[in-house]
User: What shape does this take?
Amino acid sequence: MDCVDNCLDGVTREAAAATDAALGQDFEEARFRAGAVATRADALGFAGIAAAAAALFEYLGPPGGSPRAGYTAAILNLALELEAANSPLLWSS
Assistant: This one.
């Protein structure tokens, strides 16, 4: 398994943790995890995942605050970006 697989697995696990935290209404943890996903995905060249995670981070609102309406749609968008990046068709030659 190469870095793309290992690194993408790590990003996927971090995104799952962000989702779990958000759905459990632990928005501080969700913000932290979404920010980590955005940073890590950007560093790895996964622009779509990075943008979706950054959008989720924004929807979650400021520290100590409540998320904006639509944050669950941002979670779905992040999941769709991860699914696309994990697609075997992306890596086939």
User: Anything to note?
Assistant: The radius of gyration is 13 Å. Residues 3-87 form one domain. The chain is about 75% helix and 0% strand. Residues 3-23 form the longest helix (21 residues).
